[in-house]
C-alpha cells in the first residue's frame, strides 16, 4: 500500500509537466488549475485590508463570518470594521452580516456562539483576557477558509464550527469535540460592529410553534434607523431555551418590528437581549440555518425556506457557484501572484450584495418596503471607491444581468430617496452619505455605453441629472453657481470640484449617446470645472474661496479631515481629471513637466511627515498612496505624457510592495473590491482610468498567461512572453497578431476576444505608444 500511494504523486507530477509543456506550445493555452483553488480568503484579514474570512456566496446577502471583537470603542473599532482581525486571539461568535474591506462599519448582526458543556456565559468577556466570557481561543492552524466555507476549532467552547452560506442564508454546523456533552447556542442581540452605547434601539425574539426562531432588531449606527429581521432553524428539536434581557426593559415607541404574536411559544423584546438554546447531551453535530430580511420576519422566513438542503448540500451548491464565478478568469503566474490575483477576483465578487428578499421585497432609502419586479435588488454601494475599477471589472467578468440589476437598484433607490438622488454610500437600502461625489453616474454611463441594457435609460439619465443638480447636496448649489465648490462654504472643496466635474462628463457622455444634445452640452461644459480649481502657479488642484482666491496657507502635503481634500492632499488630488488628462498635461507645462511631477510624487521623501492621524492613509510610495482610492489611476498617467515605460516601472514598484498573498497582504482597505479590482486589471496588463471612455490604458502584465471568458462567451487570452523580474518592461504588444502601438485598448476589442500578447524585455521601449495620437482618451482630443 505505501508503495502504491507514493507512486501517485509522481504520476501526477509527470502529468502536470506534460500539461505545462503542451500549454507552452498550444495555440490556446491549457490552464488546468482552477482559480477557485487559488483563493485565500485570509488575505486582507490582517493589516489594513479589513476583509473577512467567513462564508459568503457570490454577492450573497449573508456574509457569515467570525467576529473577534465587537466590544471596541472609538478608534479601536476601525481595525475591526470587518468583525474579524487576524491578529486577535479569540473569537467572540459568528454573525450574519459584514462589509468586505470598508473603512467604516456597522453590521455584525445576529451574533451566535455554540457552547458544549454545562456552563453558558451570557457576557462576551474581555477581548484582552482570553478565557473570559463566552468568547473562545482558537488557532489559525485549525482554521480553514475557502470561498463559501469557513471552519475553526473553538478551544474554550469545545466545539468545531463550520460555516457555509447560500445567497440569502448562512448555515453552521457545530460539532462537540470532546464526546457527548450538553450542546447550546448563544444568540447575542446586543452585539454589532462599531457597537457604541445606544446603538441598539430595540430588538425582539420569538420561538414559533414550528421551532423556527425569528426576531428583528433596529439599530442606529452608520446607517440611521436600520431594521433587520432574522429567522433561524435548528436541525434538532430544542430541549430548552432562555430569553434574557440584561438591562431594565424600557418602552421604545419607534420600534418597527412586529407586535406581539399570539402563536409564539415564547417571546421577548428589549434593548439588550440574549438568548440561549439547548439541544440536550449529544456527540452529534447540530446544524443551524439562518436568514435575514430588512423587510420583516415573514421575509426572513421565506428567505430561510427558499434554499433547501443540509449543510453539505448548501456548501456544495455554493462551491459550484464560486467555481463558475471565479473560473471565468484562469491565470498562470508565479504562486504568490496567482493567489493574490485569484483572491482579488473573489473579493471583487462580494458586493454590491443582494439586498432584496426572495419575493422581491426590499427596504429603500425612505425606510419603506418596495418590491423589485424582474430583477434582484442590490445594495452595499461604496461608490466613491468602486466606480473606478470594481464596476468596470464586473462588466467583463459577470453576466450583463449583474450590472443591469445594479443599475436598476440605483435607479429604484433614487426613486425612493427622500432627496430624490442616487445612492452615495448605501447598504441594505439605507443611505449613509459617506464620501463625496455622485459616482453612481459613471457606473450607469459606463454600463450603457458598453451596451448593457434592460433598464430605463431615460429614468437613469433623469436620476443622474437630478443628483448633479441637487443644490442642498455637499456644495452642489455653489458649484453650479460658481463652477467650483468654495472652501469657505463647504469642506473638502477641491476634491468635490474635480470629482463633480468628472461625474458631469459621464452624464454628458450618456446624454450624447441617447441623443440628448441639450443635456450633453450642459454637462460637457460643467466637466471643464476642474480648471477652476487648478492653480497654474503651483501646478496643484487647490481649494478656492468664494471671493475667488485660493485658500492660504497652502501645504500640498497636509492631510486633515474637513480640509481642502478628501482623505488626501494636493499631491494625490491634483491628478484627478480622468475625463481630460491631456488638458491637465498641457496645464502642467507639457510631457516632460508632467513626467517630472509624477516622479516627484512617487519619489517624495515622506520620512518626516506623520499621517498616523488619518486612518485611510496607508501604502505610501512617496506621496502616492496605494491604500486609498485617489491614487489608483495615477501610475497609469505617464501614458498621457508619452512615457508608457514609466507607468510600467511604477506598476512594478506598486505591485511588488502593496500586495502579498498573506493575511496582511493588502496595503489598504479593500473597499468593497476596489483595491482588488485594481490588481485584477493591472495583472492582466490594462486598467480603466476613465470609466465611460470605453478604453483601458495599457500598463504591464503580471501573469504569464490568463484566459478570461467574457460575458458574451468569447475568450480573451493574455500571454506575456519572457515575463519575470528581469523583464519588467513591455517591448511590444499584439492583439490577434496585429501590433498595438497605442497606449490603450478599446472595450470592443476586449469583448471581441482573441489573443493579447505582451513581449516583455529588460530595458524600456521608449518609443512604444508615445506619440500624441497613441495616447488614451481625453475629452479635449477625443477621437
Ligand atoms: C518598440 O516599440 C516600437 C514602436 O511600437 C516598435 O516599432 C519596436 O519594434 C519596439 N521594440 C522592441 C524591441 O520591441
Automatic annotation (TrEMBL):
Q: Where is the Glycosyl hydrolase family 92 N-terminal domain?
A: 39-293
Entry keyword annotation includes Signal: yes
Where does the secretion signal sit in this chain? 1-32
Q: Where is the Glycosyl hydrolase family domain?
A: 300-761
Is Signal one of the keywords UniProt gives this record? yes
Named from the GO MF annotations, one term is: peptide-N4-(N-acetyl-beta-glucosaminyl)asparagine amidase activity
Q: Name one GO cellular component term.
A: cytosol
Q: Which UniProt keywords apply?
A: Signal
* GO terms (BP aspect): carbohydrate metabolic process; glycoprotein catabolic process
In terms of Pfam families, this protein maps to: Glyco_hydro_92, Glyco_hydro_92N
Name the InterPro entries on file.
Answer: 6-hairpin_glycosidase_sf (IPR008928), GH-type_carb-bd (IPR014718), GH92_a_mannosidase_put (IPR005887), GH92_N (IPR041371), Glyco_hydro_92 (IPR012939), PNGase (IPR050883)
Matching PANTHER family, A to Z? Answer: PEPTIDE N-GLYCANASE PNGASE -RELATED, SECRETED PROTEIN
**Protein name as annotated:** Glycosyl hydrolase family 92 domain-containing protein
Amino acid at each position: 500500500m505505501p508503495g502504491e500511494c507514493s507512486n501517485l504523486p509522481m504520476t501526477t507530477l509527470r502529468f502536470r509537466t506534460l500539461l505545462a509543456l503542451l500549454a507552452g506550445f498550444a495555440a490556446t493555452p491549457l490552464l488546468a488549475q482552477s482559480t477557485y483553488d487559488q483563493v485565500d480568503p485570509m488575505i486582507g484579514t490582517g493589516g489594513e485590508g479589513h476583509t473577512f474570512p467567513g462564508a459568503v456566496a457570490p454577492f450573497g446577502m449573508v456574509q457569515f463570518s467570525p467576529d473577534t471583537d465587537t466590544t471596541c470603542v472609538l478608534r479601536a473599532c476601525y481595525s475591526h470594521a470587518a468583525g474579524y482581525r487576524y491578529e486577535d486571539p479569540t473569537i467572540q461568535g459568528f454573525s450574519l452580516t459584514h462589509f468586505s474591506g470598508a473603512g467604516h462599519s456597522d453590521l455584525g448582526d445576529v451574533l451566535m456562539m455554540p457552547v458544549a458543556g454545562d456552563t453558558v456565559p451570557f457576557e462576551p468577556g474581555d477581548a484582552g483576557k482570553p478565557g473570559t466570557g463566552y468568547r473562545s481561543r482558537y488557532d489559525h492552524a485549525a482554521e480553514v477558509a475557502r470561498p463559501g466555507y469557513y471552519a475553526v476549532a473553538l478551544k474554550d467552547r469545545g466545539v468545531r464550527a463550520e460555516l457555509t452560506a447560500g445567497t440569502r442564508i448562512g448555515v453552521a454546523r457545530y460539532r462537540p469535540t470532546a464526546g457527548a456533552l450538553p450542546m447550546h447556542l448563544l444568540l447575542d442581540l446586543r452585539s454589532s460592529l462599531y457597537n457604541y452605547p445606544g446603538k441598539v434601539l430595540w430588538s425582539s425574539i420569538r420561538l414559533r410553534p414550528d421551532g423556527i426562531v425569528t426576531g428583528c432588531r433596529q439599530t442606529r449606527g452608520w446607517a440611521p434607523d436600520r431594521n433587520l429581521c432574522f429567522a433561524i432553524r435548528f436541525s434538532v428539536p430544542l430541549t430548552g431555551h432562555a430569553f434574557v434581557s440584561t438591562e431594565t426593559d424600557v418602552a421604545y415607541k419607534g420600534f418597527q418590528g412586529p407586535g406581539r404574536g399570539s402563536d409564539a411559544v415564547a417571546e421577548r423584546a428589549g434593548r439588550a437581549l440574549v438568548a440561549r438554546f439547548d439541544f440536550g447531551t449529544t456527540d452529534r453535530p447540530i446544524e443551524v440555518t439562518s436568514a435575514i430580511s430588512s423587510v420583516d420576519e415573514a421575509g426572513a422566513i421565506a428567505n430561510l425556506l427558499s434554499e433547501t438542503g443540509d449543510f453539505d448540500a448548501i456548501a456544495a451548491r455554493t462551491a459550484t457557484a464560486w467555481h463558475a464565478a471565479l473560473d471565468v478568469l484562469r491565470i498562470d503566474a508565479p504562486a504568490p501572484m496567482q493567489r493574490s490575483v485569484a483572491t482579488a477576483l473573489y473579493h471583487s465578487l462580494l458586493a454590491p450584495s443582494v439586498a432584496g428578499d426572495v419575493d422581491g421585497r426590499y427596504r429603500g432609502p425612505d425606510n419603506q418596503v418596495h418590491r423589485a419586479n424582474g430583477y434582484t435588488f442590490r445594495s452595499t454601494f461604496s461608490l466613491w471607491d468602486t466606480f473606478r475599477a470594481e464596476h468596470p471589472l464586473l462588466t467583463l467578468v459577470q453576466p450583463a444581468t449583474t450590472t443591469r440589476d445594479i443599475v436598476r437598484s440605483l435607479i429604484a433607490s433614487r426613486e425612493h430617496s427622500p432627496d430624490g438622488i442616487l445612492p452615495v454610500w448605501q447598504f441594505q437600502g439605507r443611505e449613509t452619505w459617506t464620501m463625496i461625489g455622485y459616482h453612481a453616474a459613471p457606473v450607469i454611463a459606463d454600463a450603457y455605453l458598453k451596451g448593457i441594457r434592460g433598464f430605463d435609460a431615460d429614468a437613469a439619465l433623469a436620476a443622474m441629472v437630478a443628483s448633479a443638480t441637487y443644490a442642498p447636496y455637499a456644495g452642489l448649489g455653489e458649484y453650479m453657481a460658481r463652477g467650483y465648490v468654495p472652501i469657505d462654504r463647504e469642506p473638502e472643496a477641491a476634491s468635490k470640484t474635480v470629482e463633480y466635474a468628472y461625474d458631469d462628463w459621464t452624464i454628458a457622455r450618456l446624454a450624447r449617446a441617447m441623443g440628448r444634445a441639450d443635456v450633453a452640452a450642459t454637462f460637457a461644459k460643467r466637466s471643464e470645472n476642474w480648471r477652476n480649481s487648478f492653480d497654474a502657479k503651483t501646478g496643484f488642484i487647490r481649494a478656492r474661496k468664494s471671493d475667488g482666491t485660493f485658500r492660504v496657507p497652502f501645504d500640498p502635503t497636509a492631510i486633515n479631515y474637513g480640509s481642502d481634500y478628501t482623505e488626501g492632499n494636493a499631491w494625490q488630488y491634483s491628478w484627478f481629471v480622468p475625463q481630460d488628462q491631456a488638458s491637465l498635461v498641457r496645464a502642467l507645462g507639457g510631457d516632460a513637466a508632467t513626467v517630472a511631477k509624477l516622479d516627484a510624487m512617487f519619489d517624495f521623501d515622506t520620512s518626516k511627515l506623520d499621517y498616523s492621524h488619518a486612518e485611510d492613509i496607508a501604502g505610501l510610495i512617496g506621496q502616492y498612496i496605494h491604500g486609498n482610492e485617489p491614487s489608483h489611476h495615477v501610475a497609469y498617467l505617464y501614458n498621457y505624457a508619452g512615457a508608457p515605460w514609466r507607468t510600467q516601472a511604477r506598476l512594478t514598484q506598486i505591485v511588488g510592495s502593496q500586495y502579498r498573498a498573506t493575511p496582511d497582504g493588502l496595503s489598504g482597505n479593500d473597499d468593497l473590491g476596489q483595491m482588488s479590482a485594481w490588481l485584477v486589471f493591472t495583472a492582466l496588463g490594462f486598467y480603466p482610468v476613465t470609466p465611460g471612455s470605453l478604453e483601458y490604458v495599457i500598463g504591464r502584465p503580471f501573469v504569464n498567461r490568463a484566459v478570461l471568458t467574457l460575458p458574451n462567451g468569447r475568450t480573451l487570452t493574455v500571454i506575456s512572453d519572457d515575463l519575470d523580474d528581469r523583464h519588467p518592461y513591455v517591448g511590444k504588444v499584439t492583439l490577434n497578431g496585429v501590433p498595438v502601438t497605442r497606449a490603450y485598448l478599446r472595450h470592443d476589442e476586449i469583448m471581441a476576444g482573441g489573443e493579447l500578447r505582451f513581449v516583455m524585455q529588460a530595458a524600456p521601449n521608449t518609443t512604444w505608444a508615445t506619440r500624441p495620437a497613441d495616447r488614451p482618451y481625453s475629452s479635449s482630443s477625443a477621437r
